[in-house]
Structure formats: structure tokens, C-alpha cells
Amino acid sequence: MSWITIVWSMNAAACLTLAAIYLVVWCKQREGWAHLLFSVTAVAAAAIAAFELAMMHAGTVAQYETLLRWIHLPVWVLTLSFVAFVRLYLQAGRPWLAWSICSLRTLVLVVNFSVTPNINFRRITSLRHFSWWGGDMISMPVGVANPWGLLSSVSLLLVLVFFVDATVTVWRRGDRRRALVVGGSMIFGAILAWHVPLVIWGIINVPFFLCFAYSGIVAAMAYELSYDVLHAAQLARQLQASEATLRESKERIDLATKAAGLVVWTWDIGRDEVWLSEKNRALFGFSESEKLTAERVRSVVYPEDHQLVRQLVENSLTTAEEVQGEYRIVLADGNVRWITRRGRVEFNGNGQAAWERGVLMDITERKQAEEQFRLVVEAAPSAMIMVNAEGRITLVNTQAEAVFGYTREELIDHPIEMLVPERFGSHHAGDRHGYFGNAQARPMGAGRELFGRRKDDSEVPIEIGLNPIHTSEGLFVLASIIDISERKQAELEAARQRNEMTHLSRVTMLGELSGSIAHELNLPLSAILCNAQAGQRVLANGAIDPTELREILNDIVSEDKRAAEVIRRLRLFLKKGEVQQHSLCINGVVQDVLKLIRSDLINQKVAVDCKLARNLPSIIGDPVQLQQVLLNLVVNACDAMAGYNTQERRLIIRTGMENGSSAVIVSVTDRGSSISAEKIEQVFEPFFTTKAKGMGLGLSVCRTIIAAHRGKLWATNNTDCGATFHFSLPIAAPDKGAPITDTNHLTNKECCSHGAVRHRGGVAPNGVNAPQGVAMT
Asked: In angstroms, what CA-CA distances link 465 with 408, 427, 468?
């Protein structure tokens, strides 16, 4: 047996073996049509090998013609199988080109059996026998080629083009291994098949070896299919492992959903089928075999919430975003539960809603807590308003409606700034952002006094407290609001009465000082009278000295100004009106009081020693009321020393800075009797007095005035004798560009250095004798 017989036989046997293997594979996996196509292709390739071997050993022309005619049948099967395999397995190749090949190859088969002897030869005249590469003697046809054979050549060309096009498509798709193995072998096999027309036309003298061209393709196809089978087996093992992992994950998910109270659901929108687990079916009263539709599932919704759920579903079908809603359901046991529904829709390639997946969560406890919270808020005696992080109102109570004049519906889901006056709007927005931006937002108790805007645009004074509330939906703030209109009115009335009492106290005090004041006015009036009489005498003598007359007139003007200044200070002290706030120096207040009470100090023979600190910072206050406080303290000190010897009647007034505090302190020290320990605080109570004819309002009014200036007033006993009354006042905040003035219109520096001149006995300014010991240092 020659090698030719062995090789062609082995080719046919290999193809038949592969065909049998993949036929069995197809029988096990009927959905794998590529395996059946390969089996048919391998059988056709084996048949071609058998026909070629028989033709090489043909003894007569008639036998050769018959074999050449019938070989076209397996070639037709092989060609159609190749085309179908490419379309089915590689999913490539142009459809019109595939149909053209199948049609043309079928036409070749029909023509082949219609002409004599076949489509390749018009006639075969003889057989030429020769030995090919040392093998058996083989037969080769000698004859005239048939023009119809061009159809076969054209079909072969179309096959080559089809294989090239399919290979390029697979390559571009990214499957380069499959393109090289399958596509490359098909192209190479189609090129080798062109030796057939060359042999028929007598261009080359070789036997037909079409089976080897096609068996190479079959081998490549077998390799690729084997790779797929092995890969499928590997995937199957991985799938088994994945299934085990999935089962474990499912168990964990079931435990997690059970612990969280979740119900997982899936809705096939196209088929209108809803999936629920068996446990959840039983929970809602659905049987295991019952087909669940969207309408059937909605049947467990609480009747009053049906429209809400329908609208929720319609909204979810128009967006790929997650849609959430809360409503009530009725369970199989009749219990009504609150749930929140979360779902997300998946759309197909046509943009139509295909699937919706989501979860249901039981929020009954949260809803009950919220309802209790609403009841508590509603029952609160003050107005309550809850605001979210976006600044929108989410909850109000009836009291809030009464305070602001809006209905609940007009406030819910509207910005909180609608309740803030326009003049405070920008500040409020900044404060709100700062509060919500603080991760450690803390309660702010009631005490902040603000203004709110009512529906009629009027302003209402309010006191507000803030309480942060952390929820699963984020940070909320609950504001407790109290209408303090009545309190403010009462405070205004109290302030009015306090001013009336303060004024009355000043009038009473000046009544006590009337004698000294009269003496203070009598001095300049007497001087004016004396100077006027002197001028009359000068004029009566006839000898007028202009210089002397000018001096007399200057004295009259000077004394008149002095009297006018006394009257001015009295009128200012007696003035009744609103509290005036000025930036002033406390040393100027001390000096004005000493000027006002100067005559009384002289009459009572009280020596005053002023120790005024230099360059004191200014304070903010009402100069008249502060003069009243100091005057009251000085008068009380003089009264405390009335029963003592003249030498012991000494009054010390000090000003300075309070230790460790940003406040100015004033002290009035007397050398009289001390105050008993049990009375040292009683002296500031209304109607408490140690004087025989006192009303007991002076120190009480003084403490009220000092408290209104954010200061404090207290008393201490001296170590040797007498008592000291102190009061402190906070210094003014620096205001650049604003001049600092006092009642004497002096600058701070001028005011605090005004008392640098010492008077120790002798003649005081304007010719008035100062009491011995009165000094200002």
C-alpha cells in the first residue's frame, strides 16, 4: 500500500472520527447547532477524500467521469456547511454574500448533473497514468474543459471573499484568536482549493487534493470547538463554585433583610409579574402558586393610600432614578403597617421600562414615634416650627399659626425666611447655614430675642430656642418660639415708671439741696448788684474812668455767666425724658456733680478729696442719671457725717479701673458711721432708710440705674470708720471715627486731666471761698 492511499485514508478517517465525536456532543447539547454543522462538514470532507482517492485509482474514463460528477455533492454540502458555520458560530459574514454562495453552489450542482459528462469537462478523451513522488500509479484526466466550470470558479471566489470579510469582522470585534484560527484556516483552505480549476485547465499536473484544503479547515474548526467545550467545562466548575457562594450570600442576605425588616421584590413590567419570596408571600396573604401582578400586590394597600401608590408607580416608570414613597398596607392577619417603598426601573434598548427592583421597609415604629412627636409639638404651649437643612418648614403647630397669622398649609414646605423681617433676612440665612453646617450642632436654649414677620408684614418680638434633631433623613432643627409682645410692653411700662421714679428722686434731692442752690445763685446775683451800684456811683461822680467802668462791666458779665451755668445745670438735672446714651468720661460726671453740690459741701463744712485717675477709657451711659447716682452717694455720705466734728468730715471720691475687669469703678468714701452687716444689702431695698425723714428710694433707684447701664453697685465698711459705696460700669467698645464726648463737651484726654488744679483753702475761682480741705487731684 502506497503512501498516497495511507494519507488520503487517514484524512478521511480523521474527519469521520471528529464527525462522530461532535455528533455525540450535539446529541448531549441539542442547543449547540455549531457541533452538528461541524459533524456534517467533517463527513463531507471525508467523502471528498474518498472520492479523490478513488479517482486517482480509476481504471477507465467512464469510471473517472462518474466519480468526478458525484464529488460535487459532498463539495456542495461542505460549502453550505462552511457558510452556515461562519454565520452561526462566528456570527460574521454578510448575509447577502452567504445567500449568493449557497445559490450559486446549488446552481453548479444542478448544472453538473445536467450536462455530460460533468460541469468540469465537456469530454474526457483519456487518462494519463504516472507515479507521483514515488507512490502508486495515479490517473489524471485528459480532455476538453467545460465552459460551465466557470460557475464553480466564481463560487470558489465568492467563498474566499466571504471568509475574508468574516475574518476581518471577527478581528475588529476583538476576538483575534478565533479570527486567526478559524478565519485564517478558511482563507488558506479557499486559496488551496484553486488548484482544481488549474488542473482542469491543464496548467498544472497534480492529482486533486481538495480534501487536504478542507480538512485543514475542519481541524481548525475542531480545535476551536474543543476549546469552547473545555472552556464551558471550566465555566461549569466555576458556576458550581459560584452557586455555592451565591447560596451562602443568599442566606446572608436573607438574614440581613430579616434583621432589617426588608422585603425584596422584582417586577417584570413586560409580563406584569411580581416576584416575592415564599415567606413574604405568606406575610401579605399570597399563596405560593398564585401569579402576582402589580394590581394584585396593590390590593393589600390601605384603601386611603391607593391613589398615592398608583401615582408613585407612574412616577417610577418615567425615570431611572430611585423613587421612594411611604404608605400603609394591610397584612394577612389584619394588622395595618407603615412601609417605605424604594424602587429603581431598568430600561431596555428601546427606552422602554423592562424591570423594576426594590425593597419594602417596615417603618411603623418610626411613624408612631413621629405621630407622638407631632402630638407633643401640637400640645406645646409655645409656637413650634421644624426646619430641614434646605431651610424649608416641615412641621408647625397651632400656636405658630396664631403667632405669625399663617395657616399650616401656607407654611409647610416654604422657606423659613418668609417669617423673618427683610432687614434681618441676609443675616438669618448666614446663621442658618452656619448652624446646619456645624456637625456638632447643639441646643440653644430660649433667650435669644428677635423679631418675626407676620402675614400682614408687621413685626412681632419673639424669644426663640433651637434644638437639633438628627434623623435618618438628615439634620432638622426644632425652633421653640414665644411671643413676647406683652412682656416687651410691660418692660416699656416698667422703664417708664422707673424713669418717673428716677425723675421724682432727682426733684426730691434738689428740694433737699434748695438752700445750697439758692446760696449758689445768690452769690453771682449779689456780685452783679454790687458791681451795678458801683457803676452808678462812678457815673454820679461825673469823673468817669473808662478803665474802671470796663472792669465793672466785665465783672457783671462774668457773674451773669456763672449764674446762667448754675441754672443750666439745674435745668439739665431736672429734665424729664427718655434715657440718653452718650460716650463720656466718668471724671467729667464727678466734676459736674461737685459743681452742682459745691455750696452744700461748704455749708456742711465737708472736705472733699478727689483722686481721679488719668486717661480713663470712656463709658456709654446717660450723664444725667449717672450724676444722680453720684449725687445721691455724696449727699448720703454728707448726711452720715453730719453728727461728727468738722475736722472729721472728710469725703474721698476715687475713679479708676476695676482689677481684672474691663470696667471703670467709682468709689465714694465717708468718715461717718459704719453699716451693720445685716443691713449692708438692705440699704438698696425700696423704702428702707436709716434717715428720720428719708423715703428709702435713693439707693434703690441708684442700683436700678446702674443695673440698666450693665454695671453693679455695692457697699463696704471701712477698716477704721465709715463706709464706701462703689459702682462699676463697663467701658465702651472702641468705635473708630466716632468722637468721644461728655456733658462738658471735652475729649477723653481733656476730661480726665481736668481736675489737675488743687485748691487748698484761700480764694476759689470767681472769688468764692472754697472750704478748707476741698481738693481735686
From this structure: 21, 17, 10
Closest CA to 417 of 406, 407, 428, 409: 428
CA distance 325 to 652: 80
For residue 746, pLDDT beyond 50: no
Phi, psi dihedrals of residue 742, rounded to the nearest 5°: -125, -170
Class of domain 3-231: mainly alpha
Check residue 753 and report its DSSP letter: T
Report the alpha-carbon distance of residue 208 to residue 74 in Å, rounded.
15
Residues in the chain: 777
649-677 pLDDT, tens digit per residue, is 889 999 998 876 788 999 999 988 888 87
Query: What is the C-alpha to C-alpha distance for residues 415 and 411, in angstroms, rounded to an integer?
Result: 8
Question: For residue range 498-507, what is the model confidence (pLDDT) as tens digits?
Answer: 666 666 665 6
DSSP secondary structure string for all residues of 14-81: HHHHHHHHHHHHHHH-TT-HHHHHHHHHHHHHHHHHHHHHHHHT--SHHHHHHHHHHTHHHHHHHHHH
Note if the bond before 117 is cis, omega within 30 degrees: yes
> Does domain 367-483 correspond to CATH entry 1.10.530.10?
no
Superfamily of domain 261-362: PAS domain (3.30.450.20)
Res. 98: pLDDT tops 80 = yes
Grid cell digits, residue 682: 438692705
What's the predicted TM-score (pTM) here? 0.37
Of all residues in the chain, the percent with pLDDT exceeding 90 is 2
Between vectors from CA 139 to CA 136 and to CA 141, what angle results, nearest 5°? 160
CB count, 10 Å around CB of 138? 21
Compute φ and ψ for 626, nearest 5 degrees: -70, -35
Query: Residue 160 CA to chain centroid, in angstroms?
Result: 65
What pLDDT, on a 0 to 100 scale, did the predictor assign at position 666? 93
Task: Decide if 261-362 and 367-483 have a common fold.
Answer: yes
Measured at the CA of 179, the angle between CA 174 and CA 184, to 5 degrees, comes to 155
Domain spans in the chain, listed from the N-terminal domain onward: 3-231, 261-362, 367-483, 581-776
The 10s digit of each residue's pLDDT in 268-319 is 888 888 888 777 777 788 887 888 888 888 888 888 888 888 888 888 888 8
Q: Per residue in 572-606, pLDDT tens?
A: 655 555 556 778 888 988 988 888 777 778 878 88
Fold of 581-776: Heat Shock Protein 90 (3.30.565)
Cα separation, 249 vs 299, whole angstroms:
32
